[in-house]
Amino acid sequence: DAKTTQPPSMDCAEGRAANLPCNHSTISGNEYVYWYRQIHSQGPQYIIHGLKNNETNEMASLIITEDRKSSTLILPHATLRDTAVYYCIVRSGSNSGYALNFGKGTSLLVTP
Amino acid sequence: ETGVTQTPRHLVMGMTNKKSLKCEQHLGHNAMYWYKQSAKKPLELMFVYNFKEQTENNSVPSRFSPECPNSSHLFLHLHTLQPEDSALYLCASSRDGDEQYFGPGTRLTVT
C-alpha cells in the first residue's frame, strides 16, 4: 500500500471548517483513500473513504485531487468533540488483504 | 457504540499471570483483528482472522496467543508478559476489506 504524509498537528477554531491535508504521491490506480480518527484513549472511528471522486457523508467531505496524489478531509463546522488524531490511510480494494497501516496521523485541536 | 465490544476494559496483571482478552462483534462481519497501541506510538496490527482462519500474524511473540472460535468472537490469550507489553489492545471487525469498526479497547498494565 502507498505511504501517506500528514502534518503532525493542526489547530482549528470551533465552528470553523477544519481542512486536513494528506499527501499520497505514490498511490496506484486501485488504491482507496481512507480516513479514520481516534479520540483520546478510544478505538479509532471510520470517517469516510474514496477512490477518485469527491465524497461526502454526515461526518465529513473528502476532496481528492485529479491526479490522486493528495486529498483533503473537511470537517465543515468543527466542534470541540472533533479534537482527535486523524489518520489518512491508502489501501487496495477488498480483495487485496485487509490490514490497515496506521501512521502517526494529524493531531487536530479544536479550540473554543 | 460501534457494535464491537471488548472485555475487560482495564486489566492489571503480573508477569507470571495468564489472562485473556475478549472481543465480540454484532455486525455480521467475517474478518476480525487485534491491534496494539503503545504510548505515543501508531497502532500496530497483530493478527487478522477471516471466517475463523488466521490470515495474518505480524511477527507477534508467542506469549500472545489468539483464538477465533467463530466469526463473532475473538480472544487474545496472554501469558508471561513483559512490562513493555503494557498498551491499549484494540479489536476491530469488517466485512471483507471494507471499513473496520473498532471496539473501545482493553488498557493492559503488566507489573
List keywords for this structure.
heterodimer; A: 112 residues; mainly beta; 5-stranded mixed sheet; 4-stranded antiparallel sheet; 0% helix; globular; B: 111 residues; 7-stranded mixed sheet; 11 strands
Please outline the helices and strands.
The complex is a heterodimer of chains A (112) and B (111).
Chain A: E1 9-13, E2 18-23, E3 31-38, E4 45-50, E5 55-56, E6 61-64, E7 70-75, E8 84-92, E9 106-111
Parallel strand pairs in A: 1-9
Antiparallel strand pairs in A: 2-7, 3-4, 3-8, 5-6, 6-7, 8-9
Chain B: E1 4-7, E2 10-13, E3 18-25, E4 31-37, E5 44-50, E6 53-57, E7 64-70, E8 73-79, E9 87-94, E10 101-102, E11 106-110
Parallel strand pairs in B: 2-11
Antiparallel strand pairs in B: 1-3, 3-8, 4-5, 4-9, 5-6, 7-8, 9-10, 9-11
What does this structure look like?
The complex is a heterodimer of chains A (112) and B (111). In chain A, 0% of the residues lie in helices and 46% in strands. Chain A has 112 residues and is mainly β. In chain A, strand 3 (31-38) and strand 4 (45-50) form a beta hairpin. Chain A is globular. The mean pLDDT of chain A is 92. Chain B is mainly β and 111 residues long. Chain B has strands at residues 4-7, 10-13, 18-25, 31-37, 44-50, 53-57, 64-70, 73-79, 87-94, 101-102, 106-110. In chain B, the strands form two sheets. In chain B, strands 2, 4, 5, 6, 9, 10 and 11 form a seven-stranded mixed sheet that branches. Chain B has a four-stranded antiparallel sheet with strand order 1-3-8-7, with no helix packed on it. The termini of chain B are far apart. The A-B interface holds A 34, 41-46, 49, 91-105 and B 2, 4, 31, 33, 35, 42-43, 45, 48, 50, 55-56, 58, 88, 90, 92, 94, 96-105, 107.
